Amino acid sequence: MMLQVNGIETFYGETQALFGPSLEVGEAEVVALLGPNGAGKTTTIRSILGLSPPRRGQIRFDGHDITTLPTHKISRLGIGWVPDDRRVFPTLTGKRNLALGTRRTRFRSWSEDEMCEIFSALQHLLRRECENMSGGELQMVAISRALMGSPGIVLLDEPSQGLAPKIVQDVLKTILRLKEAGIACLLVEQNALAALEVSDRAYVMDRGRIIHEGPAQDLLDNAPLRRRLIGM
Ligand code: ATP
Asked: Which of 15, 34, 43 maximizes ligand 1 atoms within 8 Å of its Cβ, making it the mutation to test the pocket?
């Protein structure tokens, strides 16, 4: 297993947000993390990244116990992050933003040229300032920047948020390209059906707990189960 989250309990001050969820992501596996607003999906990502470290439980990545490591050390081990607000530097070009994400890990590293081969749309974004880019273009830069950090896994928080349906499909297709390149993905999405289409397995959270886990196809095939769990 690439990533193992084991019974974590995470708090904001005295308020408990996570009540012991456990999940796993294997090598080159795409795993969807679904559930309603406030279920704890973002908090799970924040816990993995060391931004909101859990008080109890354990998180392991690639053989390391990362539960209490600071964020910069966690990212250097090979965990990439695409935050929901994308966090690119608006006045810098795509190229500069990518350069700022560059890091070596034990995992495969990517040159700019290789990335332009994978993401055909990226080439013309390299010279443009990010403040002149559309939402879909920014998302492409944010995903490419994560790839420049030579990750073994990428955590994507609502990558399709605010994007037109056609662009959502493009962004989700890039996740399949990451998988082909051997990179695992943990995908948080409001757009559950689209996420399930590109995922191998899915977890559903509610009120800080995992309430379902199984193959993504099960939720796609079983509409009553899906409606009960994710309301669509
Ligand atoms: P969303 O899709 O709305 O982002 P989510 O599943 O990602 O939902 P979280 O954002 O992880 O859910 O929220 C889990 C719980 O933690 C919620 O009850 C939320 O109100 C609470 N919470 C989240 N961020 C904070 C914070 N900074 N301070 C206090 N409570 C928070």
From this structure: 43
Q: Which one of 41, 85, 188, 191 would you pick to mutate in the ligand 1 pocket, going by the greatest count of ligand atoms within 8 A of its CB?
A: 41
Q: What sections of the chain are H helices per DSSP?
A: 41-48, 71-77, 94-100, 112-118, 135-148, 165-180, 192-198, 216-221, 223-230
Nearest CA to ligand 1 atom 26: 12
- Residue 88 pLDDT > 90, yes or no? no
Whole-model pTM? 0.94
Q: Does the pLDDT at position 85 exceed 80? A: no
Task: Report which protein residue has its CA nearest ligand 1's atom 9.
Answer: 40
| Angular region, 13: left φ>0, alpha ψ -120 to 50, beta rest | left
Structural domains in the chain, CATH included, are: 3-230 (3.40.50.300)
pLDDT reported for residue 208: 98
Ligand 1: centre distance to CA 43 (Å): 6
Chain segment 144-197, per-residue pLDDT in tens = 999 999 999 999 999 888 888 888 888 888 899 999 999 999 999 988 999 999
